[in-house]
Structure formats: C-alpha cells, structure tokens
Amino acid sequence: MKDSARVVVIGGGVVGASVLYHLTRLGWSDVMLIERSELTSGSTWHAAGGMHTLNGDPNVAKLQAYTIELYKEIEEISGQATGAHQTGGVLLADSQERMQWLKMAHARGRYLGMETELISVSEAKTLYPLLEEKYFVGAMYDPVDGHVDPSGVTQAYAKSARLNGAEIVLRNRVVELNQRPDGTWNVVTEQGAVHAEHVVNAGGLWAREVGRMVGLELPLLAMEHMYLLTEDMPEVAEINRATGKEVLHAIDFGGEIYMRQERGGMLMGTYERAGRPWSPKATPWDFGHELLQPDLDRIAPSLEVGFRHFPAFERAGIKQIINGPFTFAPDGNPLVGPVRGLRNFWCACAVMAGFSQGGGVGLALSNWIVNGDPGFDVWAMDVSRYGDWTTMAYTSAKVRENYSRRFSITFPNEELTAGRPLRTTPIHGRLKAENAVFGASYGLEHALWFQEPGRQPVEDVTFQRSNSHEPVARECRAVRDGVGMIEISSFAKYQVTGPGAELWLSRMLANRMPKTGRIVLSPMLNDAGRLIGDFTVARAGDERFYVFGSGIAENYHMRWFQAHLPNDGRVAIRPLGLDLTGLSLAGPRARDVLQAVTDHDVSAENFRFMDFRRIEIGMIPALAGRITFTGDLGFEIWVKPEFLAQLYDMLQIAGEEHGLTLFGARALNGLRLEKNFGTWAREYRPVYGPEAAGLSRFVDFRKNDFTGRDAALREREEGPPRKLVALKVDAGDADVIGDEPIWIDGRVRGWVTSGGFAHASDASVALGYVEAAFADETEAPFDVEIIGERRPARLLEEPLFDPQGARMRA
C-alpha cells in the first residue's frame, strides 16, 4: 500500500468501484480504494442486480440510463463480464391512477431520449405471459431494463480502474480520518496511514460510521430487503423456448413486487409495507458475506398478491429466500457530493439502486472532484438537500415510510406525514387554528392553503385539480383585490458583515450591490456561468447585508459561500434560519394595513419599491423590505422569533377593516406564475445560464470580477440553445406539475419546469425551456403533454398580470 494518493475512496462496493473508475477515466491515476474486506462485501454481493431507467426525477433517470449504457464500456476495457441481460421490462399498472403515472413517465422519457412505449394489457401479456390480465389496466415497456451480475459489474469497474493506474487495497479497514491544517487528510488504516488530498465516503452499510469519523451524522438507514428464488418453472422454459429469449424484467406496482428470470426459475422481490430497519444505530464492522434470517410472514401480503397476479409462482417451489440490508436516505435518492465545512470530503452513500445509479453517481462525483462541478443537474442526489435537523429518529421515520411506499404513487400535491411536524415557527398553532393545510419544506411546516371553517384541513391527492382549487382561488383573488398575508419564515436568510462584505458579495453575485437602505435581485453563478442561486440582497448598513434565498437550498448555498470565504477575517456570513422569521403583506391595500401598526411613514414617496429599513411595529423592532414574490404592492417584514406571534396578531387585527386574508404557498405559486416569476430548483438550476433563464437584466457585466462572468458573457453574445418561456395552456382539469414535454410543430422541443393555475387571471400557466429558435414564435403551434394528452398552448409575450409592473411600484 502506498503512503499517499490524490484520492482515497473508502468502500469496495459497486459505488466505490464506480467512483474509482471514473476518476481514472478523467485522467487521475494516483487514486486508491480501501476496502475493509473483499470487493462487494456489504450490500453489493446479495443485490438482485436489477437495472432500469425509471425515476421520479428526470435528471436521475438520465444518469440511470447512462449507467446501463456504461456496462458495455467497462466490459470491453476490463475483459470482465458484467452479466448484463438487457431483457427489456414491463411496468404494470393495476389502476387508472398508476396508468396516469406511467403516461407521465413515458412523456418525460420523450425529451430524455428514452424509447419507452405505452402498451395495452393484452400486449403486456404477449411480452410477459406469466401475468393474469384481469388485474391490470395497462403497462409501459422499456427496452433497456434488465439485470446484471453484481459481482461481475463491481469487478469490471475495479479492473478497469486498475488498468488505468488505480490501486485497490483489500482486507484493510479505515479506522480514523484526520484533517491536516492544509485541508488534506490522514487516512489511518489497520495497515498504516495514507496521506490523501481527497476522501470519498462510499462506505455503504458503514457510511454512517465513516461519516462519524469526521463528525457527521449522515441521514441514512439500512432496511432489511427480501427476495425469493424459485425452483425451475416449466412456464419459464416454455417462454424461453417460444421466444428464444429470457423472461422480461417486470414490476407490479399494485403487488409491490419486481420479478426477473434467474436460471430456470424466477426471482421475485418485494418492498413490503411492514419494512424493518437493520442495525439502526451502528453497523458492526465484522458483518460481511452474511444474510439475515428470512421472515416470510412479513412479506406474505405482497406474495399473496403476487401469486394471484402471476399464478405460475404459486405452483413453483421456493429454492431460496435472500434477506439482506440495503441503505436508504429519507427520500430514497442517493447522498452525493461535498460536505459543507469539510474541505475535500465527499459522499457517495445511500445508493440503494446501485446497478441502476452507480455509474451515474461515479460520473457526477468524479466530475465534481476533478472539475469542481458535477456536469449535470444532481440536486435530487445532493447531500446538501438535508440539514442538521435530520436526526437519527427523523431519518428512521422517513426511510421506513419511503421503503413502504417504494412502488406507491406519490401524487404531486401529496404531503407525506412521517417525521412531521418537526420544525415549526411560533405561529404554527395560530395557522392551524385557521384551518391551514400544511406542507413541509426543508423540514419546516408551512401553510399550503386554508380550508373553509368547519371542513377537515385535508387535501385530496390527485393528478387533477383537487379540493384545494376553490379555496386557493379565493386566496389569490383576495390578494389581487385587497390584501393578503403569508408567513415567509421558510425563506433562507443570511447575514453578511464586515469591512470586506460588499467586495466579497460583489464577487459572489452577478448583480451590483445595493446602496444602504436598498434591495437588489441577483443570480449567483458557478465558474461555468450556470445558475446556482437566485437571491434578494438588502443592505442595512455600510458593513451589513441581509441575503434572502430558497429555503430548501440553505445548506447547498452555505457550502458554496463557506468554500469561497476569504480567510482574512474581513467577511463573516451566518445563516439565520429561524433566528429570523417573517410575514409578508401583499395586495393593493397592503400599505394601509402596515401603516395602521407603525408610526413610520410607509407612503409611496417615503418607502419606495425595493427600499429596506428598520422600523418599529408597535413595540416590535423589525426589518422591512418593499418587495413581494406576488408581483403586487407588498412588504416583507422580518422579526426575531420571539416577536412573530405578536406581529401576526397585530397585523390580523389591523387588517380586519381592510379584509385581510391569509394565503399559503399554493396561492403564492399561482400569483407568481401570472407574473412569469421563476423559482430556484425549477426554472433556475445549475444547467441553465442567466441568458437562457431570462435573468440577464440582473447581471451587471460592467463588473469584471464576479464568478462566472466570462462564461455568462459568452452565453449572452452567442445565445443559449434554449430559453425560458411562459405558456398559457388549455389544460382541461389537470395542470402541469413539471417535466412535461413541450411540443412545437409536432416535435418535442422542450420541457416544462413548473406551472399550475393562475387563479386571478383564470388561466393555466406553464413555464419551461424550449429551443431558442422558438422562444419568440408567438404564432407557432405549441402543445404541452399533460397525463398523456397533448393540450394546445399559447406563448405569452408578457405576463398575464400587470406586465409593466405598475402595481409593485404603486
């Protein structure tokens, strides 16, 4: 074993081997993998080895497609067979709702370049003769589904990496990680220490233990997972004989089972409702090539459904039951990327679908390490999507929920209940008393909409418009016609101070910095000129700024801020979290309500649009900005949490004579859509530049030293390949939710990023990216595919509401 390496990858499962290979593929040969036992010794060796492209996030789906395509490459390089059987697969819908979900998955596949096909039950029966037709309503066929040999794939990655110069050290446990003052690492093992510039935690079942070596408690948990192998089945032999091919891979969502051929029999696995965590607090280091005790009673309900849906299984003998642990994050997606505050420490953990996702994870992480950027939109996998509120108990609750719902539909308007409520603000009880229907964002409870008095505050989950439609419409109209109030504590808030604060922010953000008492809007770009943030910046003094952004991205943005903070002590940044809470007033009578509770002059002449100042509201010290995401006249009011309840009560009382109405996030979405306002993680993501996203007006190219300037300037001069547009859609009874294809002249030329119903304008709106040549084609025949049906759409030349912005400036 060498005593130094540029990168040390900890963990010899399929993910660690993939990361190692991809690093060498980018030209880094001085890399090492250290494994406590043998390659595949954790979850990899007993995995079922299924591979598929289906994923709720299209960017993850794209990386899964890459993973499947990669197997030919590593076979050719290494000479090691991966055992890849690209049989094709059928995904079976047992209900109309599941068929709608498959239609949407098929539609996403159109712009991802996937060749899926929606088929009838009889067509599915032809492809998969084992099924009983009466239990299904339709299916989707995917030609690239199949399965691999877990050991063969891992060895192929490892051999390919070795051929490119990597070193693999087996039977040598990492026992300690210590960071040197220069940010490099001492990786202490049972056989000695290795000095490394970077460390990658690909520890799998032991990823928590590796994280704890550096003070991290990663949000992941292992669950017991079972599948069974049958004896040889004559039905399988008949299919093989008649078709000359293997039995296809299949997923029965209603039965919560997946199936594929295994030799002369079949493999059937299940994600049962009564999932069981394994070793929930610590993984024993001596656990190895072992299986857990089978528990047929636990999976019996799923098997009973499976035997009804596929009668041949009931006649087959069971040869073996495999029960082994796999790790999951709270939402089921991997934990990938750098860790905030830990220089050169990287995660590649909780990759439960390693043979569908392992290649994509290795590609993204190696790009990140070598080039400083993953090269793809990996927000759905980014470890920074969780904060320090993800305790072990919270993780356990969410992982168990996710596991039990692995094959269940999560509707776009569905708010899952496990691990809630966790984070609440001081007015949570008041909003609950007003019959709020709550959602959770970054673990924080916030009001989505307000149900009528006397009715249960519950939303019917659906792909169509729900029972929230009319209440949200009333909230929207109340804002446009009078005044509404919404809690905005879920925004991320940062305080930047020090003599170097202005210069540093000017380098970090693309717009000019505001004068004292003023606000500017500014994107933040990476080195490639792509959008990694969208902020409101308020200046409270010469050396004090408040920066407001997306709540879900707080950890993501703090990671970037801290990594670029100068070490001369002239700048300090602090995330304020719930140390600063807020309410927003919006609508033509917002000024009347605020003036009723403060002695400060908030007239249009004295408190201009985009002003920011300290005011007193009654006895409460507050920060107030004349800005609102509704696009209307409005104010954002920020106070310490001990004042929030009193502020809420004062504004409620003052608002009575003006008809003040509470509104929630659903109404805010409808209001911002009729202004064509984009949002972070939907319209603004690291694959788009400011010119494409329509944010160039917030980029000050007169500055020559902000991050990403040259790349953004090139984009402006050369023109982006796609541009953000707004569409008015003839949507029927179902609005877009995001990721729907946009058709122009009979071809898919873009995709929806977000949308919904703009109630105050009585229109269904979709925002999305289309090929730049069509971004101004107001006469072009647009269609948006919603639940499998192409709906006519019209390009909006200007926002539906107040296109000149007179209301905001009133």
TrEMBL record:
The keyword Oxidoreductase applies. PANTHER family: AMINOMETHYLTRANSFERASE (PTHR43757), AMINOMETHYLTRANSFERASE, MITOCHONDRIAL (PTHR43757:SF2). One of its GO terms (molecular function) is oxidoreductase activity. Pfam families: DAO, FAO_M, GCV_T, GCV_T_C. Keywords: Oxidoreductase. Residues 427-703 form the GCVT N-terminal domain. Residues 722-802 form the Aminomethyltransferase C-terminal domain. The lineage of its organism: Bacteria, Pseudomonadati, Pseudomonadota, Alphaproteobacteria, Minwuiales. Residues 371-424 form the FAD dependent oxidoreductase central domain. Residues 6-367 form the FAD dependent oxidoreductase domain. InterPro entries: FAD-dep_OxRdtase, FAD/NAD-bd_sf, FAO_M, GcvT/YgfZ/DmdA, GcvT/YgfZ_C, GcvT_C, GCVT_N, TrmE/GcvT-like. Belongs to the GcvT family. Gene3D superfamilies: Aminomethyltransferase beta-barrel domains, D-Amino Acid Oxidase, subunit A, domain 2, FAD/NAD(P)-binding domain, Probable tRNA modification gtpase trme, domain 1. This is Glycine cleavage system protein T.
